[in-house]
Amino acid sequence: MKKIILVVALTFNLQLLTFNCFSGGPGTTSATFLKLGVGSRPVAMGEAFVAVADDINALYWNPSGLSLSEGKQVIFTHTEWFQAIRYEYLAYCQPALGGTIGTGITYLYITDIERRDIAGALLGSVPANDLAIAVSYAKTLSERLNLGGTVKIINQQLDDKSALGVAADIGLQYKLNKEGLVMGLALQNMGYEAPFITEASPLPMNLKVGIANKFADSKLTLSSDLNYSILDSIWAVGAGIEYWVHPVFAIRAGYKYNSAINNTLGALAGLTCGAGFKIGILGIDYALVPYGDLGYTHRVTVGAKF
């Protein structure tokens, strides 16, 4: 049985090695799935969203931006990744307690990991999944300053082994002028996770700093971000654009250079694009992210404002 578990663990680690290169780190930290950006709108804009964040997507990118969200919002995102990896995200926010509260559930799961005995006979499959539950609060402190924070409970499972952790994010946004220039900052994943089997790894603490210009007509948004994975020593820069061609249709594009990904997969791997649609209270966003010769990943987000 020990040999079986060892084979399973090695298989899972190979999956994660591939996954780590996509998410922007060499695997020196645990809970790698926390590095994966959520929401089709931010991803399509090259993940340059820390200063843009003004809707429910802010719950992940910069919790202070939740204070700019309008009314009650809910989104669901499905991501098709590589090597049978799938990623789901469900979030909700609403005004409360003098500010805005929100909660989000992140669930990553890997299928087709086989369990075999020593002779090679198939015994079924091995459960492998990651889960994070987040609760956020944001408040507008002045005409220019927004602050917010998030607490996350994390659980990772492989077969009958699991690890539990807790983390926190903090963020702020500051309006530099009345014309729509905004600065954003977020520090993510400060916390601890228990040992998965015998040895614990630190969480992927991450610093985001960015600037965005939201033009007065609300049709055009330009943004840029600097992202630094503190413990992995990986940095990335991104830029994005969003333009509402019509009140019901937006186009988005961006580019993200990651010092781990682009050096391996090529410069074109950082390109992103997508589109957004509004029909009444409903919204649908799509993002396409290429990874060189490895192919493409697709994200679809369905949401509502009411």
Properties at a glance:
single chain, 306 residues, Porin, 14-stranded antiparallel β-barrel, globular
CATH architecture: Beta Barrel
Query: How many domain units?
Result: 1
Average pLDDT figure: 86
Cross-sheet strand order for the largest sheet:
1-2-3-6-7-8-9-10-11-12-13-14-15-16
Poorly predicted runs: 1-26
**What is the fold named in CATH at topology level?**
Porin
Fraction of residues in β-strands:
over 45%
- Sketch the major β-sheet: 14 strands, antiparallel, barrel
Radius of gyration: 19 Å
Helix and strand content put the structural class at mainly beta
Distance between the termini: 53 Å
CATH-level-4 superfamily name:
Outer membrane protein transport protein (OMPP1/FadL/TodX)
Number of helices: 4
Note the overall shape.
globular
Explain what the structure shows:
By secondary structure, this protein is mainly beta. The protein has one domain (2-301): Porin (Beta Barrel), CATH 2.40.160. Helices cover 11% and strands 54% of the residues. It has helices spanning 2-23, 40-44, 58-61, 262-265, and strands at residues 73-80, 85-96, 99-110, 114-116, 122-125, 128-140, 145-158, 161-175, 181-193, 206-214, 220-229, 234-246, 249-258, 271-279, 282-290, 296-305. The protein has a 14-stranded antiparallel beta barrel. A two-stranded antiparallel ribbon has the order 4-5. The longest helix has 22 residues, at 2-23. The protein is globular. The relative contact order is 0.19. Residues 1-26 have low confidence and may be disordered.
